[in-house]
């Protein structure tokens, strides 16, 4: 070929347009996956590679098309890391509706911060956060990251979906491992995985395509029981140089016990204080209570998230000298203090959180996030939340109550159950004296006792010892009266076996009753009206799980001017259901009206067929709670 031909060919090649391939155009998503959805997961691949007891790699590639603003949270990716969990890479790209790249994530745009802020002194836990949000919808985000783990203590599992308004085009979860370190799997509503066996290693994987999630139903069992998922855990593992076995809770407990060896020694001066403190106390329970209050007065809570400290408690001497610790350190310290007077206390692992599901009793694995102390006491068990300086002795509230826990001993882990409180124990009792004038204004003196789990209503237990302004704010936010002025507040904390809070209020109620001509309309239910009615569902799919027992009793005594007399007094209500009981009474005599309301709600698991009965129960209660009395002015 002549030289000028070569030159011409080169010019022609350079002049040809270069078309970059568009990735993930929205038009390729089937309409069936977009209909009614806020987003579509285009690709979600999680690959877990296990290499040894102290080395595993997690690789994630996720692509999500965000159809509207309601799914904008999917444009944000957060990856956690610490000294034993290192991020190899973290990348992100955004594409417009036709699949054209519109944003490539820069490393300077990845925000690095502490995973726990505000109450931690020692920490390694950090997060990297990236945001690829765009203003024009739809658009697609792609995130890729890889994590190197220096332990095999926990292995990420799989849940098919967590949002019932996000569909899935393609999702895959796979685990590869040496045969000698074959992990354990618990499948819930999942098919068997596809195995790729080899001589030394093998891989197991699960894939789903073109999947639309089932709609969530309120008051159902935990998602872990209703959504296809896989729990994955090692048999043998290593964490921070400590090898262990997790095949049973007993073996898991043995490993946890090893972490505490040599960490329960105390200074001689502290031992003497504890002996002196408990001298003359007649029962083990009184001694445990005295030691618990000693711990509360001496220590405070801080988070410890550094290295093996994320799993291992500080030594008791360290807590004793410093006066602080996390749940592990403070619980270990409490066990050490009890040991001084010959009382056996147990370091007890638990999954805490008011809405957290219980641990899986048949699949031992890393499922706990908190530690408390338990002390067997005859047929009973004493329980202590050691991170709180104000918590009542032997009370497990909504954060830790009514769930399974793992009691740790030298012989291993033992499953125990924290206390459940009855409807009678979770009682709110209110007495109010209300004086109403002819203009509908009123003065009210109200005394309310909140007992058991109701002691914690809207964080009341944390407010009891606070200053007036904090208490005033609590009353304003938790008093269901349209317009009122607080004249005085008095709060008392009764830390009995079943704790209670007493709140006394003096209130001025502006136009509490409405006046129309000679008639005065008044709602007898002063401040405990129900407006909650579950949404109707004639095709309920799941059992109903009602979470709490409780009883409310209100006695409201109204005093009226002599010239007002009742024109209409409602018929007393009596509503009975498997979900609870409700009753009201009205008694008018010599210018006084006594209104009594009783409501009992019963915790339980109920058949799905009874859902409309639940709806009707609360519909009837709401109607009865909002009924009005009519008074006629004789002047």
Describe the fold and architecture:
With 635 residues, this protein is an alpha+beta fold. The protein folds into 3 domains: 26-230, Immunoglobulin-like, CATH 2.60.40; 248-417, C8orf32 fold, CATH 3.10.620; 427-633, Jelly Rolls. Helices cover 17% and strands 40% of the residues. It has 11 helices and 39 strands. The strands form 10 sheets. The chain has an 8-stranded mixed sheet, with no helix packed on it. An 8-stranded mixed sheet has the order 28-29-27-26-33-37-36-35, with helices on one face. A 5-stranded antiparallel sheet has the order 23-22-21-24-25. Strand 4 (85-95) and strand 5 (101-104) form a beta hairpin. The radius of gyration is 31 Å and the shape is globular. It starts with a helix and ends with a strand. The model is unreliable at 1-18 and 118-122 (pLDDT under 50).
Name some characteristics of this structure.
635 residues; disordered N terminus; eight-stranded mixed beta sheet; 3 domains; Immunoglobulin-like; Jelly Rolls; C8orf32 fold
